[in-house]
């Protein structure tokens, strides 16, 4: 049986019933503070709808003048890391109660516009540019599906953050989209340029849960009107995207409502790098392990935790458009569905 057939058979039936319930808001217990008064009078991103994200140029207010431009502050708190309702590698350790300190975090994924400013200022060259290519998703033909597993992934010569589908492509009309085709090292380089860091898995998940607990966190992200509340795949993966969420591929940041901590796109659109090494039960990528299509000369680097799912996650394949979802990605493997956001931890006095 092919990888695709095994995955569809194993995960499709199990999760279809669990994750088709509409997304709802649950109350946050008193033990957590979350979004706090340090955000008072600070400009928040003017995002949260299709009209607003279409107008956004990709650079937050105060960019390069304010060291925390585009960020919000989260007070530290205790939450349950993981979920008992998803995949085996998401199960909490013990009761799962996990404490995180306070930190500032980007309201959105780092955009192409922000990353371009970094490159202009530093002359930085990404790993994909050095490697000469990257893993790029495309909707496969019937012939491709019959010919090989993971037919939706290809190693594309010349693909990089500047050229998302390979040589000849550009990001001129995509400056407010998440920067992708960057490795963990690329993400670290950008973060350090701003005096920031990448979040740990726990910090990222605390932020993504946005002040919620309970079963609603593990349902398909839909709003009170039944419409998709994030950019994920509707239809039959990987051949039919019904475009119910109005975006077939990556969307600009902030097209959907923010979570309870005023953060956009923590679920769907692009997976996000964390700083943590992946440990726990090994599972292959359910969007297809991109390492499988890398050139034979590509060395296998340390698997790192990525979080949040992407535009490729669907009800019948992946089902990782959830705050507790976690996946592994080789640290030096750039792919078209992975981006990042940065944090700035509170100084301990």
Verbal overview:
The protein has 349 residues and is of the alpha+beta class. The chain has a single domain, classed as paralog of FGE (formylglycine-generating enzyme). The protein is built from seven helices and 13 strands. The strands form four sheets. Strands 1, 2, 3, 4 and 13 form a five-stranded antiparallel beta sheet that branches. The longest helix has 14 residues. The N terminus is likely disordered. This is Formylglycine-generating enzyme required for sulfatase activity. It comes from Paraburkholderia caledonica. InterPro entries: CTDL_fold, Sulfatase_Mod_Factor_Kinase, SUMF_dom, SUMF_sf.
**Element string (H = helix, E = strand):** HEHEEEHHEHEHHEEEEEEE
Total domain modules: 1
Please indicate the percent range of residues in DSSP E strands (runs of 2 or more).
15-25%
Helix/strand structural class: alpha+beta
> What is the approximate shape?
globular
What is the count of DSSP helices, taking H or I runs of 4+ residues? 7
The radius of gyration is 19 Å
**Class in CATH?**
Alpha Beta
CATH superfamily: paralog of FGE (formylglycine-generating enzyme)
Pfam families: FGE-sulfatase
Protein name: Formylglycine-generating enzyme required for sulfatase activity
Domain Sulfatase-modifying factor enzyme-like: 69-343
Organism: Paraburkholderia caledonica
Secondary structure layout:
Elements: H1 3-16, E1 32-35, H2 50-55, E2 71-80, E3 97-100, E4 103-106, H3 112-122, H4 127-131, E5 133-137, H5 142-147, E6 153-157, H6 184-193, H7 201-209, E7 235-236, E8 240-241, E9 271-277, E10 303-307, E11 326-330, E12 338-339, E13 343-345
Parallel strand pairs: 9-12
Antiparallel strand pairs: 1-2, 2-3, 2-4, 4-13, 5-6, 7-8, 9-10, 10-11
Domain Sulfatase-modifying factor enzyme-like: 69-343
InterPro entries: CTDL_fold, Sulfatase_Mod_Factor_Kinase, SUMF_dom, SUMF_sf
Organism: Paraburkholderia caledonica
């Amino acid at each position: 049986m092919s990888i695709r057939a095994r995955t569809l058979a194993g995960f499709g039936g199990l999760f279809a019933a669990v994750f088709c319930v509409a997304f709802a808001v649950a109350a946050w217990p008193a033990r957590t503070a979350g979004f706090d008064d340090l955000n008072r009078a600070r400009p928040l991103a003017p995002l949260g709808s299709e009209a607003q994200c279409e107008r956004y140029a990709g650079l937050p207010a105060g960019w390069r003048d304010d060291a925390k431009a585009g960020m919000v502050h989260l007070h530290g708190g205790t939450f349950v890391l993981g979920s008992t309702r998803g995949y085996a590698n998401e199960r909490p350790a013990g009761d799962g109660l996990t404490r995180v300190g306070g930190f500032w975090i980007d309201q959105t994924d780092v955009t192409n516009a922000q990353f371009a400013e970094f490159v202009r200022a530093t002359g930085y060259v990404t790993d994909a540019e050095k490697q000469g290519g990257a893993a790029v998703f495309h909707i496969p033909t019937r012939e491709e599906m019959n010919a090989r597993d993971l037919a939706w992934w290809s190693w594309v010569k010349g693909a990089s953050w500047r050229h998302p589908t390979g040589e000849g492509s550009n990001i001129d009309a995509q400056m407010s989209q998440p920067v992708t085709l960057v490795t963990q090292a690329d993400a670290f380089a950008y973060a350090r340029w701003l005096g920031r860091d990448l979040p740990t898995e726990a910090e990222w998940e605390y932020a993504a849960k946005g002040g919620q607990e309970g079963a609603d966190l593990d349902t398909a992200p839909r709003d009170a009107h039944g419409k998709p509340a994030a950019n994920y795949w509707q239809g039959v993966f990987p051949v039919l995207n019904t475009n119910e969420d109005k975006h077939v591929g990556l969307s600009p940041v902030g097209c959907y409502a923010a979570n309870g901590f005023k953060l956009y796109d923590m679920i769907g659109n692009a997976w996000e790098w964390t700083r943590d090494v992946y440990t726990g039960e090994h599972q292959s990528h359910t969007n297809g392990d991109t390492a499988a299509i890398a050139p034979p000369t590509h060395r296998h680097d340390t698997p790192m935790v990525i979080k949040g799912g992407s535009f490729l996650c669907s009800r019948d394949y992946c089902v990782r458009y959830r705050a507790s979802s976690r996946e592994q990605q080789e640290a030096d493997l750039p792919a078209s569905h992975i981006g990042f956001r940065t944090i700035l931890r509170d100084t301990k006095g």
